[in-house]
Design goal:
The chain has one domain (about 1-54). The chain has two helices and no strands. Helix content is about 95%, strand content about 0%. This is Flp family type IVb pilin. Pfam families: Flp_Fap.
């Protein structure tokens, strides 16, 4: 019984989960930002290519 009481009071696992969720959120934000930037760069290079070939 003492083991379960100590287990319930232990917050190290909760902290690790919180750090994992924060890291996942940062990764998702970075992926979204990079996709937007990649699409914008693709459009810019296509525009430059079209302008140069005319």
């Amino acid at each position: 019984m003492k083991f379960f009481n100590n287990l319930m009071k232990d917050e190290q696992g909760a902290t690790a989960i919180e750090y994992g969720l924060i890291a996942a959120l940062i990764a998702v934000a970075a992926i979204v930002a990079m996709q937007g930037l990649g699409n914008q760069l693709s459009n810019t290079f296509s525009s430059v290519s079209t302008t140069m070939s005319v």
